[in-house]
Amino acid sequence: MLDTSIKISSPVFVTGANGFIGQALCTNLKQRGLTVRALLRNNSSGPWHETLIGDLASKSIPYDCMSGVNTLFHLAGKVHALTETVEDVSGYQSINVEGTKLLLEAAERAKVQRFVYFSSVKAIGEGGTIILDENSRLPPETPYGRSKLEAENLVLNSSIPHVTLLRPAMVYGPGNPGNLGRMISAIHKGFFPPFPKIDNHRSMVHVQDVVQAALLAAENAQAHRQVYILTDGQTYSTRQIYQWICQALDKPIPAWSVPLPVLQGLARIGDAIGAVRGKRFLFDSDALAKLTGSAAYSSAKIQTELGFAPQWTLEHALPIIVQSYIKQDLVS
């Protein structure tokens, strides 16, 4: 039987509260009757009760910001850039690593009992056709991934009584402006070519299931000093996603597709354009690699240990996501 003897109490401290996952988490916490204290860089309204202004990059947060806090969810961080510049690498270090260290010091000072850190699957590499799990020992391939792994180690080595690391795969859901949103936009506007049938496998997870996992991690003693990968239990090919988006947009699925060698040729042209102008072109070899490559992970550990049960699959969620995109696009 799961140990659910520890319960979240008010106030709950959330960094990155105004982000995609942060807003979903704060909404859930608020619905549970908990007081949510958000650390933000700029004052803004949202599903939280208290706003504190601070900037992890400049190491400026209120000294007593965690007074009375029992549980902290740390989501703030510099996200992975498509093309990592020197400034990006510096930002990963100052925000993801040094910022996490600053929060841990404040949490230890305030005697916070539980610290849930939102990391990334990129902390263990980019994945591939071989399904990776928490026992995989592949080194991260990017400066972003290395910064996340370094921050994980800081959390695990802290003196906080209960710490848990979450490594979500690509997160989807209504309102997410990431790669999936860009793909929906391109297909909607007729800019995305009929994608070939490539048997790649990519893991993903719905934002509401990420929230479910975060609450399980905070409320189960078994989660202490554990690392959990989060997926919806499925893997998806780019061709599947392309077809489901077409169906959700009421667009016919073309009977033909662009051959992979043609896409590779176009990607090389994009590389050349990017080299000339000193800025990445919309479609290049790196973009094609993301579309054709695999990044598969297993979330069996959190399912077994904490009873994590994903409620969503991408096929189920895509019609809602697409309608959300269309509504936002028409309004903007």
- How many helix segments? 10
Instruction: Please outline the major beta sheet.
Output: 7 strands, parallel
Order of helices and strands: EHEEEHEHEEHEHEEHHHHH
Strand order, sheet with most strands: 3-2-1-4-5-6-9
Layout of secondary structure:
Blueprint: E1 12-15, H1 20-31, E2 36-40, E3 50-53, E4 71-74, H2 86-109, E5 114-118, H3 143-156, E6 162-168, E7 170-172, H4 179-188, E8 202-206, H5 207-219, E9 226-230, E10 235-236, H6 238-248, H7 260-277, H8 285-292, H9 300-306, H10 314-331
Parallel strand pairs: 1-2, 1-4, 2-3, 4-5, 5-6, 6-9, 7-8
Antiparallel strand pairs: 8-10
What can you see in these coordinates?
With 332 residues, the chain is of the alpha/beta class. It has ten helices and ten strands. It has helices at 20-31, 86-109, 143-156, 179-188, 207-219, 238-248, 260-277, 285-292, 300-306, 314-331; strands spanning 12-15, 36-40, 50-53, 71-74, 114-118, 162-168, 170-172, 202-206, 226-230, 235-236. The strands form two sheets. Strands 3-2-1-4-5-6-9 form a seven-stranded parallel beta sheet, sandwiched between helices. Helix 1 (20-31) packs across helix 5 (207-219), helix 2 (86-109) runs parallel beside helix 3 (143-156) and helix 7 runs antiparallel to helix 8 (285-292). The termini are far apart. The relative contact order is 0.13. The mean pLDDT is 91.
